[in-house]
Amino acid sequence: MRNKKFIYISAICFASLVFPQSCSKSFLEQKNTSGITEDALFKKPEDGIALVTGIYNTFHDVDFMLKALWYQANFLTQDFQNYGADVFFKTYEVPTDFGALNTFWTRAYQGIARANSAFPIIEKMRSANIINEDLAKRLTGEAYFLRGVLYYYLASNFGGVPLELKTVTDDGRHPRNTQDEVFAAVAEDMKKAADLLPWKEDLAPADLGRANKGAALAYLGDAQMWLKKYSDAVQSYKQLQGHFQLEPKFIDIHDFNNQNGKESIFEVQFIAGADMSWNHTNNNHWLASFGMPEEITQFGYAYATADLYNSFEPGDQRKAATVIGPGDTHPDPKCQISKYPRVISNFGGINTCGTKANPWKGSDKARSGYYGVKTWRDPNVTGNTGDIYIFSGQNVIMMRYGQVLLSLAEALHKSGNDGEAIDIINNQIRHRAGLGPVSGTNVMNSLLDEYRHELAGEMSLWYMLRRSGEHLRFVKEKYGITVPAGKDLMPIPQIQIGLNQQLTQNPGY
């Protein structure tokens, strides 16, 4: 239940958050709010900035980022699998009481409530000349963008969800809107945000990492793709041209020293060097330790498949930057395998991901021996139990220009312009990967392969496949698995249905 009192208090409390003045890490640090009254807040520009900064805080939860976004983006494709308690993704039998989904649902609606609360407060501050017109526009644009992003990922995971586009004044028990209605609302939020936000290159150094016009246009294009408005999506995506560029080398996209780089459109900001122990305060994440070999981290839950490893064409430079296997070295010299304490003590300091004779499959030999490296780029993470270096402070890229270009190619293809679509695939995406032109004439098949090899191990692949309508075929052709009816969506958390009897469960659960 999300009532008016809760939302109001949320806005008051999060106004005391601050946005650190750093061009490389723009994280939310919470201040003590005890004793603060309404009259003491929203009296200076910093209060308005902190109010909106509180919405970004929604992403700062280990289950939100890992188990409710990365899991679905990768486990549902079957290119990555899980060892441990969450192996149900392999059969698509995700339980309705899977706690991470409830965390995702709850935090997403908290973020949406914060955004809804922010709009009238920002307007009041503008009318009182506490903040100027430019700052009011930017903060309003950020709130629209973040509300739209949260609904984007809710709909990508669950399909239709309840739309709350203003401060809730009733008991908060609302029925689900349709998936199309949610993406239409995302599109409207992104249009408003794009009209209000500056381009990334126009942000002050201290604001790098905040929402920008290009990010709004990218998510607008994606929402239009979900709505099958392909010509509109083409126009949205093309506006990013000249403002973002592909990294010349694929390996540089996720480089620890290249955060907020020229290909990055929107990434969640974390803090490197903060508390990286179990006592951390969600200013970092555990995507790295979770997906590194157990032989290094004592975790090693998420691992890649040999099928993904073997699916790359010879010479594809994306392979080593995506997944490594027995006998392979890490592609980033900052992450030398030989330097990890457990590798030194247990394996004599070898500098490969196991060996072909003795692949690293965990203590019970249940893993594949293949591991994703896109989240394994923070050289500070050792992952040892008892060591503070378990979590990572590296930013997480949610949207980048390579993904936009592939989405643009799909939109062009579905608009009847295969020539321009193939040109993007061949002369930008595959050229960067060190590959020649695609073979064959089936543009959609080529796009599915490029989505896979461009985005595996990131935060979006399953959503792109489901959006294309080809996700069931993809899983059947690549892995011989028939996705049970309705199980391409996540279940509505059972605890939410218990709280709100107007919610209906997705078919199949």
TrEMBL record:
Give an example GO cellular component term for this record: cell outer membrane
Recorded superkingdom: Bacteria
Q: Where in the cell is it found?
A: Cell outer membrane
Q: Where is the signal peptide?
A: 1-24
Q: Where is the RagB/SusD domain?
A: 283-509
Q: Which residues form a coiled coil?
A: none
Q: Which UniProt keywords apply?
A: Cell outer membrane, Membrane, Signal
Major localization listed first in the record, in broad terms: membrane
Residue span(s) of domain SusD-like N-terminal: 90-220
Listed Pfam families: SusD-like_3 (PF14322), SusD_RagB (PF07980)
Q: Of which family is this protein a member? A: Belongs to the SusD family.
- What is the protein's given name? Starch-binding associating with outer membrane
Q: Which organism is it from?
A: Chitinophaga terrae
> What does UniProt list as this organism's lineage?
Bacteria, Pseudomonadati, Bacteroidota, Chitinophagia, Chitinophagales
